[in-house]
């Protein structure tokens, strides 16, 4: 779903929507958790222990790690930006600066501890 190359090695059609590298990392993380916790495979890399039986977590295998690195390179080469690169813009920084430099924000107020359950509004989340 996240790669421009199909399982058979062919390139997917031009209009096909591919998901981001971030989606691929989330899917791998879910698989790692599922195999590790639900199927009790732990956090040991997938390996053949005695030439017959495979043990460990398949999502932590060398092949999956190599694929994820190659996918990251392909996504970067195709122009996809990492989430952190596009998360904050100059406009966001300006808004944060203006908010923090309002006169009422420059005056310290005494700390009042509140309960997590006594949230009065959506703006009352930072203590």
TrEMBL record:
This is Uncharacterized protein. Residues 107-120 have a biased composition (Polar residues). It comes from Hypholoma sublateritium (strain FD-334 SS-4). Residues 107-127 are annotated as: Disordered.
